[in-house]
Amino acid sequence: MNKYRRILLKLGGESLAEPGGTGIDLARADVVAAKIKLLHDQETEVAIVIGAGNLWRGRDGLAHGMERATADQMGMLATVMNALALRDALERAGLETRVQTAIEMKQLAEPYIRLRAIRHLEKGYVVVLGAGTGNPYFTTDTAGALRAAEINAEVLIKATKVNGVYDSDPLTNPQAQRFDHITYMDALNMRLGVLDATALTTCMDNDLPILVLNLWDGDSLERAVMGEHVGTLISH
């Protein structure tokens, strides 16, 4: 029995690239699709928000004097490229998939319409949500929190390359301590960086739990949806 019937899975764009690399690695996309298929086969409804860090990082543009809105708009377009690549991998894995975008581009994908997205999920489709919120100055973490609340997801799962939330960077501090559970306010006050403040506040205001886990740690995603203790839970 699944603990969660409907989830919003937040993926970084790096999940589609080779470790430490950039661009889109289709073999890597196939691995991600296989993990999502395991959830679908357990009758979990899955919506996905994906980032663009493998293709474009706005801070690089800002470092060269680019206007923030332009840098963010380029990032939103890059998320659509990732969404299309992920849809292709999901459909090759046998999953009916729909891409919806917050910026209309009807030749490529459906526009994001909340009730249509929910209907797709109810019909058993995987829904990949691209272009962030459609607005500059908001991260794809915030887009994930917003869409999770809109579609009535039971949890926002942020799948990363780290197995939870730590009190400091475990990659640079071998003594870093991992939290099994942390409150929204503690995550905000400690500035842990796992999600931006707007995303955390959105989840807190809507009583939406956040689960942070390592996407690449075996079947961690599947076990989390089944209710096993995996990663770090952020809630009230």
Protein architecture, described:
The protein has 236 residues and is α/β, with parallel strands linked by helices. The chain has a single domain, classed as Acetylglutamate kinase-like (Carbamate kinase, 3-Layer(aba) Sandwich), CATH 3.40.1160.10. Helix content is 37%, strand content 19%. The chain has eight helices and eleven strands. The strands form two sheets. A nine-stranded mixed beta sheet has the order 4-3-5-2-1-6-10-11-9, with helices on both faces. It has a two-stranded antiparallel sheet with strand order 7-8. Helix 1 (26-41) packs across helix 3 and helix 5 (140-150) runs parallel beside helix 7 (197-205).
CATH H level, superfamily name? Acetylglutamate kinase-like
CATH topology: Carbamate kinase
Number of domains: 1
- What's the order of the H and E elements? EHEHHEEHEHEEEEHHEHE
Average pLDDT confidence is: 94
- Helix count, DSSP H or I runs of 4 or more residues: 8
How many distinct beta strands? 11
The backbone outline, from C-alpha atoms, is: globular
Strand content is 15-25%
- SS class: alpha/beta
Distance between the termini: 24 Å
The CATH level-2 architecture is identified as 3-Layer(aba) Sandwich
Output the CATH class name: Alpha Beta
Low-confidence stretches: none
What does the main sheet amount to? 9 strands, mixed
